[in-house]
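Running this now, will post back.
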Amino acid sequence: MMKKSQALAALALAFALGVVAPIASASAFEVKTQNNSTDTATGKATCKELNTAIAAIKNDTNYSTIKAISEANEKFGNGEYADIKVNSFNGLKTLVGAYASAFFTDTEVYNAVVSNAANATPLTNANIEETQSLLNVAVNSDTYYAYFVNLIDAIEDTTSNKYNKLYTAVQEFKANVPATTHTNLPAFNPNTLLKDYANVSVINNAYGSGVAKYYQDIKGAVKTVQDQLDKAVAGKDAYVKILSQSGLLTTAPAVKNGASLFANYNKDTNATVVRNLHDLANQANGYLTINSNWYDLYNTIEKLTACTDRSDEWTNFNTLWSLARTYKAAVNRTSTNTKTIAEELIAYTGQGTQQPTDPSNPSDDDNKGDDDNKTPTTPGTGIVSTAEGSASTTISIVAGLATALTALGAGVVAYRNARRSGEK
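Update: finished.
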């Protein structure tokens, strides 16, 4: 007869050869008590199960949209997304006009600057389109702007690369700016004449008092307006992306149509385009077809303290149950037992995003009755049904045991044959 140690050796060999797969561990999720009338319960859940449920909820595209709106609103609130300030815009226009009349005798450049910006009536608002046009005029219509600014930057540079930067700026300046007064600009030799470019007065000496200051001023004004333009474009793009997602714009109450408002607001010629789109994305009645429970889920999850392996399992359960209860309202499965929802959430495998419901499988709302006695349908989040997971796990266990017994039987036969051969 085969000894116990020999039997165990045969079984170990089967595992080593990959014939038998290890049996999956059971879930620690456990409902101790449940009150269906108040939809409350007590029980235990591991940190891993809670984190898996949170990942399942975050996987839904509705959650992603709420997250995008909340993050955009935060940036709007702290000024990262903002419309253009009129005072900064008009200040740049004034500088452009002063420059054109005071420092340029080049008729073509003078006319281009004046006709595009300097003589325009001061604005009461500034939009993206006008601001971009003004920046183009301020920088591009002046053929010499870049050479003056680069030379000033090089003179004011304090880095170890000052010599090379200044040398390049001087050479480019002399090669491109009219040479009528170049004799007042010293030749540049990094070994002996750096002191001659110690400050921007060298530019004033060559082109007249105030020229350097003007370029310094317009450089600062251009940067200020460019920063505001960048904020306006970024804010517009962020809210357009949110609002233009498929299915989010819908007909709203009071005979107002979200799509037509969006089309009207989404224009660079609107001086308050960022504010308009922000307000549209946050309408009280909602042009976005998103259940308000998603906001509750997002706000709750974002404020949760990170779960660790040392977290109390009773506390984990309370958090998980609360999320499952809100989640089923968000996905319109209020007739489904919260325990079923929780089990589906913790069975999430990370596969799929907003998977469409198979029309051949009726939803929970189409099958009223005892939720505990029916197979739960999987919501559109890529969550694997607990019932399906349990069934496949059971099949795997049975198959594994059957394979193990087969391998063990083969080992016994081999052992007996070996003994008989030895006795002959």
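The longest helix spans residues 386-423. More later if anyone needs it.
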